[in-house]
Specification:
Blueprint (H helix, E strand, L loop, with lengths): L7 E5 L3 H12 L3 E6 L7 H5 L2 E4 H5 L9 E4 L3 H11 L5 E4 L13 H6 L3 E3 L6 H14 L16 H8 L13
Parallel strand pairs: 1-2, 1-4, 2-3, 4-5, 5-6
InterPro entries: NAD(P)-bd_dom_sf
């Protein structure tokens, strides 16, 4: 995939999944541009990536970096439409989200056709995918202090659950296997 998506990638969404995508893509050597609807320019997340852009600012045309691929992790149809508007000709859009209240999305077919945009759906996550992700984040956790990572054994499942419902964490991944 490294040679096929260009050097500049955009991640749409500042949730946990967007942050994790940004970290992985940065570690793989891509120039990462994170897009969100929030104005978080001075937050720790902005210091770990190359660029943070508020989607509305970008949509107004004030900022136009060339983006070869987008990874949509948030905002549903709105995120997909933003990505199709902003991507370069021949670019790739990868969808990594479930949209419970928007099962049907629409984008401009002519734009997809004339810009030669490739759209890929998300992949299913297996136990192995989850283990690989935990391993990757664990190896690079010292570089990204924004992440708080705790791994519990199966025997500590109750303690893991009790900690996950505190205000300390905004996202918890639990794997039973």
């Amino acid at each position: 995939m490294a040679g096929s998506i260009g050097r500049n990638v955009g991640v749409i969404g500042t949730g946990t999944f967007g942050i994790l995508h940004s970290i992985v893509l940065k570690q793989l050597g891509y120039n990462v541009i994170l897009f969100g609807l929030e104005r978080i320019y001075n937050q720790p997340i902005c210091r770990m990536i190359d660029t943070y852009i508020n989607i509305d600012d970008y949509a107004e045309g004030s900022m136009r970096p060339q983006i070869d691929a987008f990874f949509c992790t948030q905002y549903g149809e709105k995120g997909l439409v933003y990505a199709s508007n902003m991507i370069e000709r021949g670019g790739t859009i990868v969808l990594f989200q479930s949209i419970a209240n928007e099962p049907v999305v629409s984008i401009d077919y002519n734009k997809v056709h004339y810009k030669e945009i490739k759209i890929h759906g998300s992949i299913a996550h297996t136990k192995r995918n989850f283990q690989d992700a935990v391993s990757f984040v664990s190896r690079h956790n010292d570089l990204y202090k924004i992440l708080s990572l705790k791994i519990y054994s199966k025997k500590e499942h109750l303690a893991a659950f009790q900690e996950s419902i505190t205000h300390k964490f905004n996202r918890v991944a639990i794997s039973f296997g």
